[in-house]
Design brief:
By secondary structure, the chain is of the alpha+beta class. It folds into 2 domains: 223 residues, C8orf32 fold (Roll); 86 residues, Immunoglobulins (Immunoglobulin-like, Sandwich). Strands 11, 13, 15, 18 and 19 form a 5-stranded mixed beta sheet that branches. Strands 7-6-5-10 form a 4-stranded antiparallel beta sheet, sandwiched between helices. Strands 12-14-17-16 form a 4-stranded antiparallel beta sheet, with no helix packed on it. A hairpin with a 2-residue loop joins strand 6 and strand 7. The longest helix is centred in the N-terminal third of the chain and has 22 residues. The N and C termini lie far apart (53 Å).
Length: 317
């Protein structure tokens, strides 16, 4: 029997980041291991609690594996075919294919989301911690709002800590692209993504993972605004509009309302066609901050910035 296997290529009691100061400090002193087994062995030696081990694996990957933009924009075909006689043999050969990708990532210290996710899962397997690779959907630009994709475009991880599943994304924690270059900058928000905010950025392909964290459809996921990482990491929440497509009415301003928006924040906005950003009209009443954007543009893209970071992205029509 011949089996064709296609690897995916992507473009309670809790601890907060302060609790991991000692873990992170120790991991920062680790060498740049060239074998996943050596990293797992070191983690197992240095830490006794599963959550410390999970944190150490995640933090090392985010700090040491650089996102491969060249591979992202010019992906290599990853179709792997093999023959097998039993189900056990099939699973062994699939894992061997994944291990090959992990080994290359550790040698080169480069990879895309597949490398991050498979590497994290492998480390957890070696440490005896239950984890999974999740295939699903993410959105990055306003043109994607309201247009559900037909195929998934990202992979990340789930791991069971203290008998509860949590989601994390080492790829997005490692940094971001800016002007065609990879900016290495660790983002702790994507370690144990808050349950109530998971579906603002990630939507699992398998329904079991959706049901474990909430109730939302793929259409609803794509109809949302695009949320910036720094905004999600703050205490601020968007009250309205909840949808990412805003209908522009003649002689009427666009109104955005927030709760817990830090008033000391620098707030500006811009439309896609505009060269310069502008300040919205701001008012506060009963702890609700209202931003008014006069003379909005139709059939455009609206970007809202908080402290020079893109906080929200909308489409207008």
């Amino acid at each position: 029997m011949k089996y064709f296997f296609v690897l995916f290529l992507c473009f309670s009691i809790t601890m907060n980041s302060q609790d991991f100061i000692n873990v992170d400090a120790k991991v920062l002193k680790y060498p740049r291991f060239s074998k996943v087994e050596n990293l797992a062995s070191r983690i197992d030696k240095d830490f006794s609690e599963d959550e410390e081990k999970v944190r150490a694996a995640f933090f090392w990957l985010a700090k040491n594996i650089r996102y491969n933009l060249k591979e992202y924009y010019n992906p290599k075909q990853r179709n792997i075919s093999f023959r097998y006689a039993t189900e056990v043999e099939k699973l062994q050969k699939i894992q061997a294919a994944k291990d090959q990708i992990i080994n290359i990532a550790f040698r080169t210290k480069k990879g895309v989301c597949e490398e991050y996710a498979q590497s994290f899962k492998k480390i957890c397997d070696l440490l005896g911690i239950e984890a999974a690779v999740i295939k699903g959907f993410v959105r990055n630009v306003p043109s994607e709002i309201g247009k559900p994709a037909t195929t998934s475009n990202h992979v990340w991880n789930a791991v069971k800590i203290n008998k509860k599943w949590v989601l994390l994304d080492a790829t997005w924690a490692a940094g971001y692209e800016e002007n065609g270059k990879w900016v290495k900058k660790y983002n702790n928000y994507f370690y144990k993504i808050p349950k109530e905010k998971i579906f603002k950025t990630h939507f699992p392909e398998e329904s079991i993972w959706v049901l474990r964290f909430g109730r939302i459809t793929l259409k609803e996921f794509y109809n949302q605004p695009i949320y910036g990482q720094e905004f999600l990491a703050s205490k601020a929440t968007l009250i309205s509009p909840q949808k990412g497509i805003i209908s522009v009415e003649k002689d009427k301003s666009i109104i955005l309302q927030f709760k817990n928006l830090a008033l000391k924040s620098s707030i500006i906005y811009n439309f896609k066609e505009n060269k310069y950003a502008l300040k919205p009209i701001l008012s506060v009443e009963n702890e609700i901050t209202t931003l008014s954007i006069p003379k909005p543009k139709k059939n455009s893209e609206l970007y809202l910035y908080l402290n020079n970071d893109v906080a929200l992205q909308f489409k207008t029509e």
